[in-house]
Amino acid sequence: MEEQKENRPQAARPPGKLQHRVSDQETNGKNTASNLNDFSDPVYKEIAMTNGCINRMTRDELRSKLAEFKLDTRGVKDVLKKRLKNYYKKQKLMQKEPVNGDSYYDYICIVDFEATCEEGNPPEFIHEIIEFPVVLLNTHTLEIEDTFQQYVKPEINPKLSEFCVGLTGITQDIVDKADTFPQVLQNVVDWMKQRELGTKYSYCMLTDGSWDMSKFLNIQCRVSRIKHPSFAKKWINIRKSYGNFYKVPRNQTKLMIMLEKLGMSYDGRPHSGLDDSKNIARIAIRMLQDGCQLRVNEKMHAGQLMTVSSSAPLEGAPAPQMPRYRN
């Protein structure tokens, strides 16, 4: 649930290796930072030179080169440049030293809650989760392997507002027949255990923004008098990852805009938690294909939202357990 919730063209390059001349400014300017970090290996200079060449390519040249390598040709020019740069970088580094395929999460669990809401979001209104979806993304196959979805009966504001029904498509009858949050959370934990997450397979959580975990889940756990589940204390905020990877401002990282910039359109019903989660998964897949290593970048600590440094060790979420009830 969202928070209411050219460069001058040059002649086309021949297929294969990108050949070009690079000015002293390109090699000795912004790329010299690499050398300060022990990036003296010639492969890094070659990568930097290739990046300079890619920066001067037109959109048509970029698409032609991507098609040559059987890569996706959709997206705005900056996305195409990033995709091609990462392809070349990955190829060069793999030649230098094969990548250890066991060092990344096996799965990513995408979650996008829907919660009770009022028009205008009055500050005193207490949001309660009414849909708990999980989309299981296999990072090896880059496919959605499974999904979970259950609706939740709200306790404090059991009657949904007309605004909430219209926004989410979740009717009063649906939530009246649903289980309360503790039971749904137990069902989520059981579902994750059946898929051996945190035991046989490493995994992490991913959300579209900070609110799902830091606000909606946090509030819901207090309402239900249970502790915050340990598996949901750290997550990937894909908005941050997208903005940092594609170098775009924060106002360009909302779900619909991210899809549009990647050359995709929304599939399903907006503000359906499951459909939102599937579309977020599509963005995650494209980012992984483009060479982004999605990694945990936010966490809850002592009830507060905190940033996780990109230099922190890559750690998967713990095996899911039902949290204890609060005293």
TrEMBL record:
Q: Which PROSITE patterns match?
A: SAP
Q: Name one GO biological process term.
A: regulatory ncRNA-mediated gene silencing
Name the needed cofactors.
Mg(2+)
What catalytic activity is recorded?
Exonucleolytic cleavage in the 3'- to 5'-direction to yield nucleoside 5'-phosphates
Look at the named UniProt entry and state the broad enzyme category this protein falls under.
hydrolase
The Enzyme Commission number assigned here is: 3.1.13.1
Q: Which GO terms describe its molecular function?
A: exoribonuclease II activity; metal ion binding; RNA binding
Query: Where does the SAP domain lie?
Result: 54-88
The protein's location, in the record's own words, is:
Cytoplasm; Nucleus, Nucleolus
What does the UniProt keyword field contain?
Answer: Cytoplasm, Exonuclease, Hydrolase, Magnesium, Metal-binding, Nuclease, Nucleus, Phosphoprotein, RNA-binding, RNA-mediated gene silencing, rRNA processing
**Gene3D superfamilies annotated for this entry?**
Ribonuclease H-like superfamily/Ribonuclease H (3.30.420.10), SAP domain (1.10.720.30)
Q: Which SMART domains match?
A: EXOIII (SM00479), SAP (SM00513)
| GO CC aspect terms | cytoplasm; nucleolus
Ranges that cross the membrane: none
A Pfam family of the record is SAP
List every stretch annotated Disordered: 1-37
Biased composition, Polar residues: where in the chain? 25-37
Extract the InterPro entries matched here: 3-5_Exoribonuclease (IPR051274), ERI-1_3'hExo-like (IPR047201), Ribonucl_H (IPR013520), RNaseH-like_sf (IPR012337), RNaseH_sf (IPR036397), SAP_dom (IPR003034), SAP_dom_sf (IPR036361)
Principal localization?
Answer: cytoplasm
The protein depicted here goes by the name 3'-5' exoribonuclease 1
